[in-house]
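To assess whether the prediction recovers the assembly geometry, we first specified each molecular entity separately, as shown.
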Amino acid sequence: MLPRFFAALACCLPLSCWTPAQAADVTTVRIAQLQIKPECLHAFTLAVREGMEAALRTEPGVLAIYAVADKNDPTRLTFFEMYADDAAYERHRQTPHFQKYFHTTKSMIASRVLHEALPVELRDKHNTPARPGR
Amino acid sequence: MLPRFFAALACCLPLSCWTPAQAADVTTVRIAQLQIKPECLHAFTLAVREGMEAALRTEPGVLAIYAVADKNDPTRLTFFEMYADDAAYERHRQTPHFQKYFHTTKSMIASRVLHEALPVELRDKHNTPARPGR
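The predicted structure of the complete assembly is given in tokenized form:
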């Protein structure tokens, strides 16, 4: 019975302890600053959520997309996006969900500035877990 | 022997499968844009790395700090920082490692702009694992 138990354990552990792609895998970063027309903010947010969910779920090279709003102006948004490499970013732009987001929201955006960036140091709780007391 | 094995397993599994804090726990975001004096860039980067490692390792409320450089100008840096809440951010500013970083690098920074932000949607491979083919 014991060997069978170990075999079952070996099958289950990689699934339950699977580690997804980390910040350490990032080579391409994009930062987008968007000004949204106030009357479009709700519709824009819905489109963003749908597009981001699809991108993270279906594209292995899209590692993170963080959308945040200025604390004093909810229509001023920043997107901080991390990709495995430039090719992953280019593929992302061609996906049906990105194209849908892009065309749906085009008229909702008052201005957009895109910055290309490279990682200097990317730290989070996945690559540097907190160990309180140390 | 089997019960002892299960007891040992129960002790080990929570460690190996422990899930660290996620983007979903973030309520406070700070974005800092820094222009570094070119002659100080190397020293600045070393100080940043040391401070970030200590912050993530010792502060449970510091969830991520991502430092990136403009693709065409390595002295133009952006810091995208995620905290559990405002109190965690304030505590972070008072830590010895932040104070050391702050005073060490003060003279290396030509300009600094800090933006306070709130999450709109934060997605990464930890809260939305990729499932290729879907």
